[in-house]
Please model this.
Amino acid sequence: MDTTGLHHFVGFLSSAFFLTTADIFKFKNINDAVVFQCNDNKYSMFLQKAFQSQDIRLQTVDIGPNTTYEMPQTNLKIGMVINTSCNSWETIFFEANKIKNRFSWILQTEELSLVVNSLSQYPIEINSDITIMSKNGNTYLLHEIFNMGLKGGRLVVRNIGHWDSSLHIKVQRRSDLSGVVLDYVVVVTENLENETFQHFVEHSGSGRFEVDNVHKFKSFTMLSYIRDMYNFRYRLIRTNSWGYVRNGSFEGLVGILQRSGADVGGSAIFVRADRARAVDYVAETWQFKPQFVLRQPKYPGGFYSIYTGPLSKTVWYCVIGLLFLIALIMVLALKQKIILAHCDEEDNPNTLTFLFIFSAVSQQGISINRSSNSVKIIVFVTFLFTLTLYQYYTATVVSTLLREPPRVIKTLKDLLHSNFEAGAEDVLYNKDYFKHTTDPIARQLYKKKIVTSTHRSYLSPDDGMALVKRGGFAYLVDTCAAYNRMRKTFTETEICDTQEVALYPPQSMGAVVRKGLPYKEHFAYGIRKLYECGLMRRLQSVWDAPRPPCVRTPDASALSVRLAEFSTALVLLLAGMAAAIVILIGEIFVFRFNKRRHHKTYDSIRIRKMYGCVRTPDASALSVRLAEFSTALVLLMVGMATAIVILIGEIIVFRFNKRSFRI
Model:
């Protein structure tokens, strides 16, 4: 080994430059570095071993007149060391600086002013990591350099520490942007009247709830706090869309940021993978919760369910079948002649049985004069059964009118199969969701209730919540807008009846900036600082109206029966009256027809007497033919057959009883 070279290497290991460089890299947690040198490169191996002893992987590159170096493609922070005494150092720096915010530079120089003058020609942004080492005796002075602005800003050079056998460095945040101007793009979909766009955005008082349906005022207020933290200014750019793909490219807020038409998104947007390829998400802000808001129906099956609901279908069938069975047994019992009393022959068993069953069900008495014990037992058991049934039924009907409405619509599927109408807030993200969703229930709901062949139910929040208040309507809206309108326009009972059905889980919203913006970390740190200080929670408490509390107080209207709830009984009454009127009209027509026919018969006789052709009644004309008497004969034969069967049965019973008595 060359003894002279070895002495040079040992001197390098003990030199302040090597120790300063290694200490800076360890302070910044950098484990990979590249050293550019313009002297003899035969001691590169010794140099790499020296840095390896400090747990830093090193690559050495010799700078020559035609040196080209391919910068490493990695997401790791890489340290770059370059000696400004080399002739081609600016070329290497310019090529490497095209890759923004990936390298931590250490520039060694003897003349600080010359290096600063050279660097002023390059776009050194505020997030650049460039340290200049200038020797002052046995001490190295450390300076950092960056530019405040985006284009033609002020170049800042400031001392951050020194090295004198140990590193003394002070981290200074670049928080004062000295009034740099950033472009905010804000989404406003409303038509502004009697005010400018800037006045509309900047003067967002508490009365602006009527138009804050996409958190734009919350986002702008948050960005205003960050502006005050970093001392910069803004220009406002207006757009009417958050950014959706149209003809292969983004439009709206995302499109403007992608084309560098603005620097910062003044409105928070949904976190989506396709947008992340066009803009940079800085931090999550808050969640967006669009839900179907509706009033739960008090009677899900309609008002007639008040009267049919107390009993299930199976119980109804059993009750009706049992009443038919009781009626059949009663008819058979009443038709037995041997149990008839002296004055019972005038009663029709069928009519008497019908009246008996109806009076028992409606708890109205009817007298049946029978000395038979079996009839008495039937009457007693029937009234006992109907009394129990009547008490349970009426109590259930009353409790149905007074109790809280059951929560029957809990999911999208329940809403889809209900008789509710549905609508959505007239904003782009709702239309985009229904256009691209793969949820089969959401697609069916959209085609069946929101956008059909006959109507499109896209409504403003005021109109949509008015329909929700009326009942029978479900409205898709952000809960912030819905709760505020509920608090202002709904009664306490209507608030308690309100139910939310989620269309999809709450979506995260994030603040965005354009790709490559050097102030991205400023906004990320600022939002986290607002969370830490509680200002984000305060913004949510101011702008996000909470759900109005359900306070149930005694209400006279809750104890009264409305006409709609009594409509089923009225319908039955009107139907009965209509049927009676129709039958009455029919009877009148039949009566008049028979009367007119009778008059025509005697008029024809009088006319025939005048003209000598008179048909006088004879025996054949006044006699009833067999065909005309056939119905009566059939009834007589049926009655005789029935009487014979009953007589035989009574004779058998009588003889059986007589024989039993003799025994």
Summary: The longest helix spans residues 567-610. Residues 305-402 form one domain. The chain has six domains: 3-169, 181-289, 305-402, 406-505, 567-617, 624-663. Residues 517 and 577 are 81 Å apart (CA to CA).
